[in-house]
């Protein structure tokens, strides 16, 4: 049994869907397909969420534009206008519009999950129906019915015990060889929709792989494999042929966009190999993530860039020392507002952190910290991480740039740059 995860870029057009079907039909094994929302649909739905919560005008036109985008793809794929896919997609957009007629709840995260989930529900419906039309019978599964989480909306935590009971029932391979389901989504015990964190479809695929003891997990991207930099940023980026689970976890932790940070842990526990492949070049082998030793890792410099960063410097108002109780208090505030820290550095009287500019959460965080500490911050920064750094790699990244904060270890160097 294989699990294939496809991102939104693979099905962002009718031609993309046709290419996707070509890949699927080239395999003859039992298969579960985990799919993201099409193209930039999640971004569009996030704009709708913001308008909905802020009670702004213009929501209807945003939904119309999103429906037009998907309808165009359907029209190019399905010649018969009475095909079931048309009514199914119309129904899903009807459900979305009905939710948007309500008043926002008191929780932004709750509304976010109930609205953004439609991206994956729509994409998987279209793909499942087109697979059927193309001669590949399959079963569409609503992942929310079996992949259960707590009620931490927008970052649902997996209920492993319950999910391990329900997932094998949903994917039993009794009457079909192919399943199509959604990445990124989960459901609570009371059947409320949750999401697993941005780009969480990789994590969904890893969870299913772990629970179902699959032979291999493949994640299909628009790049040849895992590169030592984003090729859109550094055109001379090189592909890493094979890396260990440990190295993959490190790269994900520091923000490499190819793999979701939580993805590696479940498959590492059962030593399930992960192949990162290109849906644009089927002859390319991609990058294998497995039990390779550190000696087998390609230890060339790997460059990771995180943009739109904020450097926050915190110190006690009375210039007293940053003691353990201060740090404990600060970390609890960061945890409360669910702001992930990308880099930490402290001195006797100050504590500095680099974080993503997550607007709503960050504003509330700074406001609370400011009641007890003196806070300064810089916006519009970049955080550059270099794994397996050397002097040439450091010079390449920092030459001519103002370094606001720098941190180096044996394997990793990080720079906050203006």
Automatic annotation (TrEMBL):
Q: Which residues bind ATP?
A: 257-258
Q: Which UniProt keywords apply?
A: Amino-acid biosynthesis, ATP-binding, Kinase, Nucleotide-binding, Transferase
One GO cellular component assignment for this chain's record is: cytosol
- Location of the Aspartate/glutamate/uridylate kinase domain: 3-278
GO biological process per UniProt: homoserine biosynthetic process; lysine biosynthetic process via diaminopimelate; threonine biosynthetic process
Q: In which pathway does it act?
A: Amino-acid biosynthesis; L-threonine biosynthesis; L-threonine from L-aspartate: step 1/5; Amino-acid biosynthesis; L-lysine biosynthesis via DAP pathway; (S)-tetrahydrodipicolinate from L-aspartate: step 1/4; Amino-acid biosynthesis; L-methionine biosynthesis via de novo pathway; L-homoserine from L-aspartate: step 1/3
Any one Gene Ontology MF annotation carried by this entry is: ATP binding
Source species, domain of life: Bacteria
Q: Can you state which reaction this protein catalyses?
A: L-aspartate + ATP = 4-phospho-L-aspartate + ADP
One Pfam family matching this protein:
AA_kinase
Extent of the signal sequence:
none
What InterPro entries does the annotation carry?
AceGlu_kinase-like_sf, ACT-like_dom_sf, Asp/Glu/Uridylate_kinase, Asp_kin_monofn, Asp_kinase, AsparK_Bifunc_asparK/hSer_DH
User: Which EC class heads this enzyme's classification?
Assistant: transferase
This enzyme's EC code(s): 2.7.2.4
* PANTHER family per UniProt: ASPARTATE KINASE (PTHR21499), ASPARTOKINASE (PTHR21499:SF59)
Which family does the entry's similarity section mention?
Belongs to the aspartokinase family.
Which protein are we looking at? Aspartokinase
**Organism this protein belongs to:** Labilibaculum manganireducens
Q: What is the lineage of its organism?
A: Bacteria, Pseudomonadati, Bacteroidota, Bacteroidia, Marinilabiliales
């Amino acid at each position: 049994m294989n699990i294939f995860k496809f991102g939104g870029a693979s099905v962002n057009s009718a031609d993309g869907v046709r290419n996707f079907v070509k890949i699927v039909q080239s395999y003859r094994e039992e298969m579960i397909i985990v799919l993201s929302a099409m193209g930039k649909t999640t971004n569009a739905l996030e704009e709708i969420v913001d308008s909905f919560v802020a009670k702004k005008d213009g929501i209807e036109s945003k939904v119309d534009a999103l429906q037009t985008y998907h309808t165009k793809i359907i029209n190019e794929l399905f010649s018969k206008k009475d095909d079931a896919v048309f009514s199914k997609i119309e129904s899903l957009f009807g459900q979305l519009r009905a939710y948007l007629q309500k008043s926002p709840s008191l929780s932004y995260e709750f509304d976010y999950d109930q609205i953004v989930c439609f991206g994956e529900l729509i994409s998987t419906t279209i793909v499942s129906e087109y697979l059927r039309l193309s001669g590949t019978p399959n079963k569409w599964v609503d992942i929310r019915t079996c992949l259960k989480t707590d009620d931490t909306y927008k970052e649902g935590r997996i209920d492993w015990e319950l999910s391990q009971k329900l997932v094998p029932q949903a994917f039993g391979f009794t009457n079909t060889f192919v399943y199509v389901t959604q990445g990124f989504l989960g459901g609570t015990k009371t059947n409320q929709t949750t999401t697993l964190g941005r780009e969480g479809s990789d994590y969904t695929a890893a969870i299913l792989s772990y629970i179902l003891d699959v032979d291999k997990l493949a994640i299909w991207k628009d790049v040849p494999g895992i590169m030592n930099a984003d090729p859109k940023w550094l055109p001379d980026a090189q592909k890493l042929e094979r890396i260990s689970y440990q190295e993959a976890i490190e790269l994900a932790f520091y923000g490499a966009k190819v793999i979701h940070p939580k993805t590696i842990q479940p498959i590492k526990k059962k030593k399930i190999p992960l192949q990162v492949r290109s849906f644009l070049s089927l002859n390319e082998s991609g990058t294998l993530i497995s039990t390779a030793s550190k000696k087998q890792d390609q230890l060339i410099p790997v460059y990771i860039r995180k943009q739109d960063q904020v450097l926050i410097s915190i110190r006690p108002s009375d210039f007293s020392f940053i003691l353990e109780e201060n740090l404990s208090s600060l970390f609890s505030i960061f945890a409360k507002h669910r702001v992930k820290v990308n880099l930490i550095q402290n001195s006797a009287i100050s504590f500095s952190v680099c974080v993503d500019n997550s607007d709503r959460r960050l504003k509330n965080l700074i406001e609370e910290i400011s009641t007890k500490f003196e806070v300064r911050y810089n916006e519009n920064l970049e955080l550059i991480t270099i794994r397996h750094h050397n002097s040439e790699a450091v010079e390449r990244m920092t030459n001519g740039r103002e370094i606001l904060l720098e941190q180096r270890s044996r394997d990793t160097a990080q720079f906050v740059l203006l």
